[in-house]
Amino acid sequence: MDQRRTDWSADDINGGTVLVAALLVGIGSLLAMAGLSVACAALVAASRRWYHRVDLPPHEIARLKWEQAKAAAGAGAGAWCKTESKSYVPRSQRASS
User: Fold this and answer.
1) Phi/psi of residue 4, each to 5°?
2) Whole-angstrom distance, CA of residue 60 vs CA of residue 81
3) Are 61 and 54 in contact (CB under 8 A)?
4) Cα angle at 14 between 11 and 19, to 5 degrees?
5) For the segment 32-82, what is each residue's pLDDT rounded down to a tens digit?
6) What is the pLDDT of residue 66?
7) Please, what sign has the CA dihedral across residues 55, 58, 61, 63?
8) What's residue 88's pLDDT?
């Protein structure tokens, strides 16, 4: 019977390939962090421009947005109920076939 090794060995790993892979992961991580910082800077700049353009203080803006959200929810609920009452017919009132 042949005595061949079948277990894993560190000699099976190509060190050059692992080194290149680690280098690419590192470069990709640096590029991702740079892209994230540029995106954050753009968002901060846009937020500052918006804030300077608005004439209201932050608490007034929050209250206005809350009132808009309540109005939109009420309009949606009203439309839902109105549509349901127009098209829904209870089983007891349907003509039996």
Assistant:
1) -100, 145
2) 32
3) yes
4) 125
5) 999 999 999 999 999 999 888 888 888 998 999 999 999 999 898 888 777
6) 95
7) negative
8) 72
Half-sphere exposure of 6 (CA within 13 A, CB side): 2
Query: What spatial distance separates the first Cα and last Cα of the chain, rounded to whole Å?
Result: 83
The answer to whether the beta carbons of residues 26 and 18 sit under 8 Å apart is no
Amino acid at 73: A
pLDDT at 81: 78
Distance of CA 13 to the CA centre of its chain: 39
Q: How many CB atoms lie within 10 A of CB 61?
A: 14
Place of tokens 């804030």: 51
Residue with tokens 């918006």: 50
Q: Where are the beta strands (DSSP E) in 1-97?
A: none
Summarised one tens digit per residue, pLDDT across range 11-30 is: 788 889 999 999 999 999 99
